[in-house]
Amino acid sequence: MRRMALDIRVGRIIKAWRHPEADSLYVEEVDVGKEEPRTICSGLVNYIPLDNLQDIKVVVLANLKPRNMRGIKSYGMLMAASDAPHETVELLIPPEGSVPGERIWFGSEEEKEQQPDAATPNQVQKKKLWESVQPHLKTTDACVAVLGERPMRTSAGVVVCSSLKKANIS
Predict the structure, then answer these.
(1) pTM above 0.70, yes or no
(2) Exposed end of the chain (fewer CB within 10 Å): N or C?
(3) What's the CA gap between 56 and 54, in Å, rounded?
(4) Which domain of life is it from (predicted)?
């Protein structure tokens, strides 16, 4: 598998609300370590109660091209695990002590230094980086998020979901 350059970061939802024009969407303001919070729309209404999205740490795919979602521009994607029938969806959880804005990597502690630079949103789209990586993202029997065999991690530890094993991540 070639070196990927997705920019996956620790985020913290500052606030979330129902999208005024779309029943299945939430709008979240997410701190990803920049001056301004990032607006992200996510189709989680049917899976996660709004109260569970306030002031939590999340995993954000940050270098997607902004998309217009029913009149609101979305700058990224919250990453979540889901079971095969897509009936249960759980957000990925950065480890305790993770800092918003920290870039997430795959593999060992030593591999952090070997991360490729993040691709631009245009490169992600043109080279179909997300589409090439996404099928290899899963959770293990221990609910750890992995790319192939390599754990998703921050400097504080590995990224997990609460209960889904051998689930797809998107």
Answers:
(1) yes
(2) N
(3) 6
(4) Eukaryota
